[in-house]
């Protein structure tokens, strides 16, 4: 068996030497490009999803989110809940959100939306809004007549190209009128405008919890959710378990569990796009290898007939062609991995600018191994079939056909 493999390897090496360096180089480059195509697009999609996940954690849900039980609108005794959660090991800080529906007027513009409230001291430890205030300042404890506005809410003077309704270019220092759903009307000075590049986060406005207490009247503001920051993202499931063990009866979810269904559906759609991309790359590789091996075997029919006539086993001849394909794939995948590494390095240094954030391709070892294995198996099969067909011809037929 070992001797057969040695003979196959010898025949494969001789065939590659006689096959022409230019042709072999072309096949290697094509295999490299196929591998790059199979991995790069999925890596960009993974990078885009990673940006979305980071934005969700940084601005929308934090690592763990607590909401009222089903069919209950508000969290009962949120102060006790905050005190309990802040004692849980692994929790950095918890911040409650106190929303109320309303509308915002500025000059001739009106935007109907939810006005949210938080305690600025808690919020700076749980989310990153305070790090992305592009104009003005973040809210401070005790602020009563000031409001923090997302850049998509502030808008631009020329709002013809805006997807969302906006205030048409409100800036820091401008006074806006907020009409709350309970009938209270307040005027606020815009203290800061934040830009996070998250569509969801940048279409939010905030006042302080003290202000929302005053707006809500007797009983104060009521919280609908509590965001919990953990020491690390990976601890979220463990912290959720500990929160429940501390006797919290509300609905506790990690950020992954809290993702809306539309996001899960989007992830499935991206997975389908990935599969189509990989399948397309494999088809190109299989067709290329099949044509390459078919041309080579039919050009070498006479030689194959002679090899059979002197008693060489069919398996040795077939293996020699499969080895040629594997060798070309080996060099092609090595070159493809090098190209891929250079592209990832470049786009890590200069990320791709998407509307909702800068995306860096994410390439994992498992992704490379899986796609390389698929490429090798597909190419080996594509190389085996034409060699098997020619080798199974009669000796005289093969010699005459050459």
TrEMBL record:
Residues 276-393 form the ABC3 transporter permease C-terminal domain. It is a multi-pass membrane protein. The keyword Transmembrane helix applies. It comes from the Archaea. One of its GO terms (biological process) is lipoprotein localization to outer membrane. It is found in: Cell membrane. The keyword Transmembrane applies. The chain crosses the membrane at residues 25-49, 270-295, 316-347, 359-385. Pfam families: FtsX (PF02687). GO terms for cellular component: plasma membrane protein complex. This is FtsX-like permease family protein. Keywords: Cell membrane, Membrane, Transmembrane, Transmembrane helix. Coiled coil: none annotated.
């Amino acid at each position: 068996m070992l001797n057969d493999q040695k003979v196959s390897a010898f025949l494969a090496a001789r065939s590659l030497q006689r096959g022409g360096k230019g042709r072999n180089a072309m096949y290697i480059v094509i295999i490299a490009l196929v591998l790059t195509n199979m991995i790069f697009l999925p890596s960009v999609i993974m990078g885009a999803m990673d940006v979305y996940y980071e934005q969700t954690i940084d601005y929308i849900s934090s690592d763990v989110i607590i909401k009222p039980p089903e069919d209950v609108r508000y969290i009962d005794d949120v102060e006790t809940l905050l005190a309990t959660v802040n004692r849980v090991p692994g929790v950095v800080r918890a911040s409650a959100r106190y929303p109320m529906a309303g509308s915002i007027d500025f000059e001739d513009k009106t935007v109907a939306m939810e006005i949210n409230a938080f305690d600025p001291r808690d919020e700076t430890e749980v989310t990153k809004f305070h790090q992305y205030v592009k104009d003005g300042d973040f809210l401070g404890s005790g602020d009563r007549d000031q409001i923090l506005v997302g850049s998509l809410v502030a808008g631009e003077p020329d709002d013809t190209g805006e997807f969302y309704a906006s205030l048409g270019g409100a800036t820091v220092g401008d006074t806006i009128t907020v009409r709350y759903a309970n009938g209270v009307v307040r005027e606020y000075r815009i203290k800061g405008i934040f830009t996070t590049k998250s569509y969801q986060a940048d279409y939010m406005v905030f006042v302080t919890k003290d202000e929302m207490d005053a707006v809500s009247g007797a009983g104060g503001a009521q919280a609908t959710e509590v965001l919990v920051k953990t020491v690390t993202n990976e601890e979220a499931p463990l912290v959720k378990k500990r929160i429940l063990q501390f006797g919290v009866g509300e609905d506790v979810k990690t950020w992954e569990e809290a993702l809306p269904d539309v996001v899960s559906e989007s992830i499935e759609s991206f997975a389908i796009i990935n599969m189509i991309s990989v399948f397309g790359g494999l088809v190109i590789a299989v067709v290329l290898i099949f044509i390459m091996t078919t041309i080579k075997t039919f050009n070498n029919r006479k030689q194959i007939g002679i090899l059979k006539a002197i008693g060489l086993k069919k398996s040795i001849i077939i293996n020699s062609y499969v080895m040629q394909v594997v060798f070309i794939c080996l060099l092609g995948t090595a070159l493809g991995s090098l190209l891929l590494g250079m592209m990832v390095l470049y786009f890590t240094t200069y990320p791709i600018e998407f509307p909702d954030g800068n995306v860096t391709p994410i390439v994992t070892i498992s992704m490379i191994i899986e796609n390389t294995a698929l490429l090798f198996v597909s190419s080996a099969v594509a190389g085996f079939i034409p060699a098997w067909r020619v080798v199974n011809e009669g000796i005289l037929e093969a010699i005459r056909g050459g």
